[in-house]
Each structure stands twice: as structure tokens, then as C-alpha cells.
Design a protein that fits this description.
alpha+beta; phage-related protein like fold; 7-stranded mixed sheet; 4-stranded mixed sheet; 7 helices; globular
Length: 302
């Protein structure tokens, strides 16, 4: 242990604070476990990335002996994304640092990391919401709506899937007779933050789930078999241009220290076939209004 008094410079060491932030931000982003982290842009020029989304070539054809192979041209569409710079800063007075209650330096570090993670997570949800595969459910979120939504994947073999729901939807799921809680005996949790399962789909709550004013837009992700395999493209990829950087600056005029965090990157939807957006009514009133209008029975004249 170093001898001597604890100085302000030691408490606000940028390298120490930055090291504390590295894993904290990724852990705070709910979508990180389901996304591929792509670092190929690190150290490369340019502020934009073009992401190819490949079309399926279709099933193989049957050919007879010495017959020519049928060739199919591979097709794809391009999606261009601009790298974003996520930033946040705080200003700490000397008095707050040296005699403040509740470790203001640690709290500033924690909140800066949470702030960057919050912004990236919001962009993850926005990217998933652009998926072309969508299913309009009937009424509030329930087992039947989830079943119909995952049928859009047209799976021949059931694979692991996860659905992101708004915390306000949890009560609707918990009262569903088909809901299996993660607290039940024998339940095997696969994902951190998993609250249970419905229709074989693992449930994660995120207040970042968006809505269109009438329905919640619940992304359902079909998880890849191997996130380390380049050819097994996940639904979501987070491109990094530069990982988190923390800098401090002394403002002698007011006797305070500025702490600024930035991170360059952006999330992108990289596999349309692995996402279905389930539209679920936000409230029971909304669900009732969404039903087709009832017509009066025909009048029978006597």
C-alpha cells in the first residue's frame, strides 16, 4: 500500500476510471449477449459502414446423371450506417470529491457508463424495430400471439429465441396460464436477466421496448447457433470504431474537474431472417378498440 495522503489526482486518475468502465458498459446493455461485437472498424479510416444483407438462394434442385448444375446468383441489399459518437460528461467540484457523501467519484463513473449504455441500447431497439418480418397480434401480449409470431420464422427445428418486453407487460405475461417463471424448480436460466419463458421463448424485460402509440413493438430474436462463426450472422451487430475513452480536464477558474466519456460505434440490423417484431396492444382499452366493430344482427320483420 502506498504511503502518504490521498490526493485529488489519485482519486480522478483517468486510466483507473477508464478501466472500471470497460466491462461495465457492455454488461449494462441488455442486447450485448445476443449481438456480435465487430471491431474490424477499429483503426480504419471512414465514418460509415455498408452492411450487406444476403438473400436466401433457395433449396437445392435435383439433377439427373450428367445434367448441368443449376446456378443461382447470390443477391443482397446494402444498408449504410454512420458511426455515432456517444458522449457524456460531468463536472465535480473539489469539495464534492474530497468531502462529498457517498463516493461521488465512483457514482460519476457508474452513471457515465450507464448513460453510454443507455444510448446504445436505445439504438439497438430502434435497429431491431426496422425488421421487415412483423406480426400484428390481437389484444395484449399472450401465449397465442407469441406462438403466431414465432411461426413467421418457419422453423423445422425449434431453436433458442428471446423476446424483449416492456416492464409494463410483465403482469400480463405472469397471469398467462402458459407462462413458466424462472423461479420455478428445475427451470434452467440461459440468459442473465431472464424472467421466464412462454411458448419456448425466453423473456427479457427492457424499458427500451418501443411503441407506436397503440402497440408495443416486441422484438423476438432467433439466436444463432454459434456467435463466433462469421457465416452464422446474428440479427444484431454492434460495430465499434473505438471503445470507451475517458478523459479528465481541470477547470482552475472554478476549482472543479470535468470527466468526459465517449464511445464510437453503432448497432445495426444484420440479419432480417432472425427477427420478428410482435405488435402487442399497450392496454386492454387499446386492445378492445383494436377489435373489428361489432355489427347489429339483422332485423326480422314480422
Amino acid at each position: 500500500m502506498a504511503a502518504g495522503n490521498t490526493m485529488l489526482a489519485q482519486m480522478l486518475d483517468p486510466q483507473v476510471l477508464q478501466d472500471m468502465l470497460f466491462g461495465k458498459i457492455e454488461n449494462a446493455i441488455r442486447f450485448t449477449p445476443f449481438a456480435k461485437i465487430d471491431t474490424t472498424l477499429v483503426g480504419q479510416p471512414g465514418s460509415k459502414v455498408t452492411v450487406p444483407v444476403w438473400d436466401y438462394i433457395g433449396k437445392a434442385e435435383v439433377t439427373g446423371e450428367l445434367q448441368q448444375v443449376i446456378y443461382t446468383q447470390m443477391g443482397y441489399t446494402d444498408a449504410e450506417y454512420t458511426i455515432k459518437k456517444y458522449t457524456k460528461g460531468v463536472l465535480l467540484s473539489d469539495e464534492a470529491v474530497l468531502s462529498g457523501f457517498g463516493n461521488p467519484v465512483g457514482q460519476a463513473n457508474y452513471q457515465l457508463g450507464l448513460s453510454i449504455a443507455d444510448a446504445i441500447e436505445a439504438d439497438c431497439v430502434t435497429a431491431l424495430g426496422t425488421a421487415t418480418q412483423q406480426f400484428a397480434g390481437t389484444g395484449l401480449i399472450n401465449h397465442l400471439n407469441v406462438v403466431k409470431a414465432i411461426d413467421v420464422f418457419e422453423e423445422e427445428v425449434m431453436n433458442n429465441k428471446v423476446i424483449f418486453v416492456h416492464p409494463k407487460q410483465l403482469s400480463q405475461l405472469r397471469v398467462d396460464s402458459q407462462f413458466i417463471s424462472a423461479t420455478e424448480a428445475g427451470y434452467q436460466t440461459m440468459i442473465t436477466g431472464e424472467i421466464g419463458m412462454i411458448a419456448g421463448v425466453r423473456i427479457i424485460a427492457s424499458r427500451r421496448v418501443e411503441d407506436d402509440g397503440t402497440n408495443y413493438l416486441n422484438p423476438i430474436l432467433l439466436l444463432t447457433a454459434n456467435m463466433e462463426t462469421e457465416d452464422d450472422i446474428p440479427a444484431l451487430t454492434i460495430y465499434l470504431k473505438r471503445d470507451v475513452m475517458l478523459e479528465t480536464s481541470r477547470d482552475v477558474d472554478i476549482q472543479g474537474t470535468k470527466i468526459v466519456v465517449n464511445k464510437h460505434g453503432m448497432p445495426a440490423l444484420t440479419n432480417q431472417t432472425r427477427v420478428v417484431v410482435l405488435k402487442s396492444a399497450m392496454t386492454a382499452t387499446t386492445a378492445k378498440n383494436a377489435e373489428p366493430p361489432k355489427t347489429d344482427p339483422p332485423k326480422i320483420e314480422v
